Amino acid sequence: MSLYDIPLTTLSGDPVSLADFRDKAVLVVNVASKCGLTPQYEGLERLQKAYGERGFTVLGVPCNQFAGQEPGSAEEIETFCSTTYGVSFPLLAKAEVNGAGRHPLYAELTKVADAGGEAGDVQWNFEKFLIGRDGAVTRFRPRTEPEAAEIVDAIEAHLA
Q1: Molecular function terms in GO for this entry (predicted)?
Q2: pTM of the model
Q3: How do the domains of the chain map onto residue ranges?
Q4: Closest Cα to residue 151, out of 28, 38, 31, 18?
Q5: Cα(86)–Cα(79) distance, rounded to whole angstroms?
Q6: Crossing angle of helices 40-51/149-157, nearest 10°?
């Protein structure tokens, strides 16, 4: 199964898939509202604003698997993201990124190794996977800031 064939659900409950973003570079990020890394929403939103018109989008995936740091309902998550960080990028329904209940999207994404050659489980909230327009995936670990040179360079390499 291709990444583009995996069924997804938006935070509001509507069906979607990565095929809807096939012409874009997509930065998939497992997000949480009560994490020490939560301020990364600011950088993610700045990336969205800087590159959105050039064929890029952030795609947030709320996840409560790491110390229960995303306990809210869909409505609470939406309100938090919009009022606290002005998030304009799409958010998916809450999903598991590791373990037996791992979402199929993450079953595929976690096969990709990071810059150090390590694949496997997501380490924490705000792990990032850049899916290029060509379908190639680049992985960035949670502590890599959204606007770090390696992420910005990778995004720009996939834009027209």
Answers
A1: peroxidase activity
A2: 0.97
A3: 3-157
A4: 28
A5: 10
A6: 30
| Sequence-ordered list of residues with C-beta below 8 angstroms from that of 45, at least 6 positions apart, any chain | 58, 85, 86, 87, 88, 89
Query: Of the residues 25, 28, 35, 87, which is catalytic?
Result: 35
**Spatial CB neighbours of 135, under 8 Å, sequence gap ≥ 6:** 2, 3, 4
Cα-based angle 87, 9, 105 (whole degrees, multiple of 5) = 95
Architecture of domain 3-157: 3-Layer(aba) Sandwich (3.40)
Distance of CA 40 to the CA centre of its chain: 12
Determine contact, residues 88/120, Cβ cutoff 8 Å. no
Q: Are 94 and 64 in contact (CB under 8 A)?
A: yes
pLDDT in tens, the chain (160 residues): 689 999 999 999 999 999 999 889 999 999 999 999 999 999 999 999 999 999 999 999 999 999 999 999 999 999 999 999 999 999 999 999 999 999 999 999 999 999 999 999 999 999 999 999 999 999 999 999 999 999 999 999 999 6
**Cα–Cα nearest to 33, from 90, 89, 94, 88:** 94
